[in-house]
Amino acid sequence: QVQLVESGGGLVQAGGSLRLSCAASGSIFSIFSIVNMGWYRQAPGQQRELVATITRGGSTNYIDSVRGRFTISRDNAKNTVYLQMNSLKPEDTAVYYCNGVGLQNYWGQGTQVTVSS
Fold first, then answer.
1. Span 7-42, pLDDT tens digits
2. CA-CA distance, 59 to 83, in Å (whole number)?
3. What is the Cα gyration radius of the chain?
4. Element holding 115 (H helix, E strand)
């Protein structure tokens, strides 16, 4: 089993930055099985949407609305994935969830990001 724990959310003014972290812990075998990791977000009244993904080899993908502003990265030695968010906009306000795809589909508990105008 794998536990994903997010941190780094908070309240920031538009134009500001935040860095989210997601640390994986648990079974070493299960952690090693995780190939792709990603960040999702869910705003009130909306469906959860994929924001960015990164493969074990470091290939990344972003949704159009965050490309150029957000950067996903991972430190395999620390079993941690990051989401650097710059030039934040009020529409980025949401609960952000970390996701890992391996033997199972793993989810973190979420961290709130609020961007004020």
1. 999 999 999 999 999 999 887 777 777 889 999 999
2. 14
3. 14
4. strand 111-116
The two tokens of residue 114 are 């609020």
pLDDT computed for residue 110 by the predictor: 96
Residue 28, SS3? helix
3-class DSSP string for the chain: CEEEEEECCEEEECCCCEEEEEEEEECHHHHHHCCEEEEEEECCCCCCEEEEEEECCCCEEECCCCECCEEEEEECCCCEEEEEECCCCHHHCEEEEEEEECCCEEEECCEEEEEEC
- What was the pLDDT predicted at 102? 86
Strands 10-13 and 111-116: parallel
Query: Which residue's structure tokens are 């780094």?
Result: 8
